[in-house]
Write a structure and sequence with these properties.
- It is found in: Cell membrane; Membrane.
- It is a multi-pass membrane protein.
- By secondary structure, the chain is mostly helical.
- The protein has 2 domains: 178 residues, Preprotein translocase SecY subunit; 203 residues, Preprotein translocase SecY subunit (Orthogonal Bundle).
- The strands form 2 sheets. It has a 3-stranded antiparallel beta sheet with strand order 4-1-5. It has a two-stranded antiparallel ribbon with strand order 2-3.
- Helix 2 packs antiparallel against helix 7, helix 13 packs antiparallel against helix 15 and helix 14 crosses helix 15.
- It is globular and about 85 Å long.
Length: 444
Amino acid sequence: MKKLIQTLKNIWSIEELRNKIITTLLLILIYRVGAHIVLPGLDPNKINLSGAKSGALGLIDAFAGGAFSQASIFALGIMPYISASIFMQLMTILVPRMQKIQKEGESGRKKINQWTRYLTVIVTAVQAGAYVAYIRQVNGAALIGAYDPYFWISTTIILTAGTLFVMWLGEKITDKGLGNGTSLIIMVGILARLPQAAIQEWAAKSNRGGGGLLLFIIEIAVLIAIIMGLILLVQGVRKIPVQYAKQIIGNKQFGGARQFLPLKVNGAGVMPIIFAQAIMFLPTLFSYTSFESGKGIAKIFSDPKDAWHMVIYAVIVVAFTFLYTALIFNPKQIAEDLKRNNGFVPGVKPGQPTADYIGAVMDRITLPGAILLAVVGILPGFAMRVNITQGFASFFGGTSLLIMVGVILDTLQQIETQLLMRQYDGLMKSGRIQGRQTVSSTPI
């Protein structure tokens, strides 16, 4: 405890770090206040979008911090921007012209960011129209009659402006605050549901009698164990030894150092789970309420605890893990960089043999990483099968837990870097926080 108090004092004593933390908290507070402002034209007392808290729409509501089910001006949250960013990142990988623009440096990055914003407006406008149709169909009683003729156009404009404002908040947090702003906004939205979900789970277990407390404690212990395992998955690396040739210039020797090339077990990060969920959500593009019947194919796509749902979901996650890793990881480029810097892998010839060796190692570690990622993705379904409420079960795995663990590690790493730069001790007594150090440029 004494060590923790001293660390907090050290953090607060650094003016730059203190200002970053305060700025981040204030901008997040603005976002959370906006998430509770109801759309014009709706009666707050009659809003009942409880169906959006479960099933296929539950994840969207989780990412929006509950704003989706509350018909807030931030109902769509940051997800349209995330979708546009993922699409643009894939284009920079698949389209040669986009690759050329990306390699132009700062000017190329600004162009791509501007196109991403334009695409965000289009995606948000389309989703806003679908959201209006969802409200009319599911909770039309909440509409105020006098405002009905203007509801569609005003809601579309407000939701689009709300998403752009949230995007701006994320960029400001990244520039002036601490950590990745978009990631922090998503994490805060997810964490905002945790207290209510835990209270509901406790209430459900209390109704079962004397053994309810023991079951709840066991669930908390399992959740902590899952988080610890997920930290290992996020930080796990396979180190390939790299030797640099010695160079003697004058009376001084340069190089000759032995270092390691870290290859992440989960190199694709959270992207495979997001892609898998996007595929499972495809039918919702036709209607937000297409899963209401809960039968046949609809049940497979909408019910996370359905056996076929988990099997299909796991297969998609494994497939996308290999696909996305192949897209973002270039062993040939790494081999060329090593050769250019007089580095080599002991026992392996430079050039193509080194690229083949690194690629083979990456393939071997990607398989267990993909399987573990798939297991994490379907854990909420298993949790619901053992009678854990759906809201609390969503924290046992899936995108929500992956994002929370990754963002927290990333933020703690930045804080530790600030402390070490000023010759303070880090956040841990031994070792360093590795963080995600993701290789992708997506906001999350």
